[in-house]
Amino acid sequence: MTPAAGPLYQQLASHYGQAIEKNTLRTGMRMPSVRELMRRHRISLSTALQTLRLLEERGWLEARPRVGYFVRGIAVPPLEEVADADLSAPLEAVAGAHPFAGINERISVLVESARRADVKVDLGGATPGPELFDTAWLNKTAIALLREQPNLLAQSRSTATTHPDFQAAMALRALDAGIRVAPHQVLATVGNTEAMHLALTAVCQPGDVVAVESPTYYGLLQGVESLGLKTLEIPCSQASGISLEALDLAVRTQPRLRAVVVVPDLQMPLGTLMPDAQKAALAAFCRTHDLALVEDDSYRPFVEANERPRPIKSWDTSGHVVYCESLNKTLAPGLRQGWMSAGRWHERIQMLKFAQSRNTPAFSQLLAARWVGAPAFERHLQRLRPRLRVQREQAAQAIARHFPAGTRLRLPPGGLSLWVQLPAGVRSSVLFREALREGIRIAPGAMFSNTDRYEHFIRVSCAQAFTEQTDEAYRVLGRLAAAQAAV
Amino acid sequence: MTPAAGPLYQQLASHYGQAIEKNTLRTGMRMPSVRELMRRHRISLSTALQTLRLLEERGWLEARPRVGYFVRGIAVPPLEEVADADLSAPLEAVAGAHPFAGINERISVLVESARRADVKVDLGGATPGPELFDTAWLNKTAIALLREQPNLLAQSRSTATTHPDFQAAMALRALDAGIRVAPHQVLATVGNTEAMHLALTAVCQPGDVVAVESPTYYGLLQGVESLGLKTLEIPCSQASGISLEALDLAVRTQPRLRAVVVVPDLQMPLGTLMPDAQKAALAAFCRTHDLALVEDDSYRPFVEANERPRPIKSWDTSGHVVYCESLNKTLAPGLRQGWMSAGRWHERIQMLKFAQSRNTPAFSQLLAARWVGAPAFERHLQRLRPRLRVQREQAAQAIARHFPAGTRLRLPPGGLSLWVQLPAGVRSSVLFREALREGIRIAPGAMFSNTDRYEHFIRVSCAQAFTEQTDEAYRVLGRLAAAQAAV
């Protein structure tokens, strides 16, 4: 990950860092001693010591006095956890005066300023870098596909929005997750963004209300706004996700509430895992009140657990759950391949998809079908999870090291980012602008709500390899935050 | 095209047919005589005569008594031309009671029944078959691209909806068409369907009115309806396209009219070429009345002319023209690649695209950029046009041969389909169902309007190679139409 350049002790630290990352050296194992390192690599005492100290500093090793260095276990940084908000009531429903004047405007300004900046360290977008994918396998499969089906790129598939091979592969994938979906109920989408857009278009009329988690992924807020719908932000507990108490109040006070959108596993940005009991209760709640429950299941493959959690869809007995998965972050970001199974709204969504963008390219669908069905995909995820865990811990440690007192975070049980609460007085929108000037991109809290209640939060991505430069970026961020806190 | 199988005279006819198609034997050239054929191919007199008669029957040759056989010029079938409708007034504005209850429902039923049928001859979808594309070149370029950019499929491009290489290539393409578009004004889309959807979403509010050509492409009617907008059908002249007289009346009677959508070159399904004066007038009209003019320019590359017509966008001085092009039918249907340049609505449409589907795959964009910029693309179109011309003529001749008296059509100056008027008493929705039972798919007139005024029309595709089986399909269609006409 860290390029093998620079002084010898840095090269050696990278070498061992990678071995830990790849689980060749596992948590709790004893690191070779100073003497062993000297002999093995024919290095001086001082180089051996520098190597071990750097590995310790980067969070790879912990020193046990008079025993030696050991590979670190889960790093819990010495930071307080983020506290839950009041879970008893929903926030005010928000609708822009105009469908493009609220969050869309805000996000566009942020995205545009990031695009124009000379970003050197991108902690903004939480998508794994190309080095975390099996690109050799991907390209080999793509080339094989083009050779086997020479007409693939030139073939029109005007009557079918989704390729039957993709439908079959996703139906199998669903079965694996405990969901029964017939192949014909699988609809290919352009990532998850289109899936959400189709789901909300099918379920709502302009002016209707959509309940979302607070904080939530900004793309969802944009989608809701661009459809002329109202967003109702429902507070989330970090232990169990969306507050059913607040949702219950919302049903009674908002007659035009039509849909609830959730990311039950590794909620974005909180990283919460919704417990099974809560999933079952939420499914029952939506059934009882005839609400569409739109489930974004794109992060479940990143959960650190021996047993994979079950999606809410597996508790759906009435077709109220619209299940969506993006394969962007697990399979290949460049394909923009997603899929959905829309329960009782299937016919209407198929119709809308046909009217709004027709079919997605068969090339991407077939590549996704082959990849997702292959054992290589599970192996890829098994390699990816511990690497991301290490990257999350490295980021958390860097924050603990560099950020001012009063900074809080909770290490999530998986995923691609951290949600960080800054000390009182630090405004993340200011931090965003100042950091960008230093070539560092972060996601300020304002992106995750229509309110300003997350102004003192940032989301940082752990999807890219943690390098010297990343550590330096956290140091700069910490300095900027401290300067604001001191004012 | 016709497979080289069957009796010897059929093989020879195919051989010469292909030579004519490829312009090796050009219009007006004298065909080898009976004696020459006998000597050249060592065949009997009867085989030589059968070969020439089959070529004549298929429309490749014409016999000049006592002189010999000549390669045919443009075949004008002995059919009357379709008459124009009343051009003085728009039709009633139509809005479904519900955004999914009108044309979307109708089209879905048709598409679904075609999908379920065992279609042997598809005259429904007007996209060229894979044999009309340079698939070897496409695949070679795709594989080279994956080898040169091994991270292409695994790379996330979250802040940019359009790849800069694609923007540069399309800006050059636009320049070639007489349009000045800066690279940053190019937005990649999922075919034209998404472009239309984005344009209308940006320009209109639910309940607004969109003027469309009548008849028009059904996908547009679906898109308008699915956005909760009203369609106002404006009659078209076959000589000059959309009626400005009717449009003028529409502006005065429809205060919520916001946009006009046209296919100025090779209007779908009429095949009309809008004259330059009309294009300039329409651009000025929309500027004067502050209407968005959405221009679908996907068919211009199929125009049979030495000089390519200019898009309306080239007369746009105020940014009122939203220019859209799908590369589906010219480049590769499997990529679903389109683009747009949205004039004064650019910022808003970029925002909407980001909110509704993010970026389209870089793989497709880069492949399109290479292809469209290469001389091979122009060569491909130069080969494609005469092949399509021959296929249109073959279809027109088959209709003239097999359809009942009273059938009318006008050979369009290019394109992928024919618009056929059936005799009084023939209902194309019935013909559609009956033909499907025989394994033949056509597009009934009802797909091209929210009214039933095209119930006695069909659109037939000429995008697939014309074979014995195609001829047989026209024979069956003619028989079915005649049976209806006789009742």
From TrEMBL, chains A, B:
Pfam families: Aminotran_1_2, GntR. Keywords: Aminotransferase, DNA-binding, Pyridoxal phosphate, Transcription, Transcription regulation, Transferase. The keyword Protein biosynthesis does not apply. SUPFAM superfamilies: PLP-dependent transferases, Winged helix' DNA-binding domain. It comes from the Bacteria. GO terms for molecular function: DNA binding; DNA-binding transcription factor activity; pyridoxal phosphate binding; transaminase activity. The keyword DNA-binding applies. Residues 6-74 form the HTH gntR-type domain. In the C-terminal section; belongs to the class-I pyridoxal-phosphate-dependent aminotransferase family. This is PLP-dependent aminotransferase family protein.
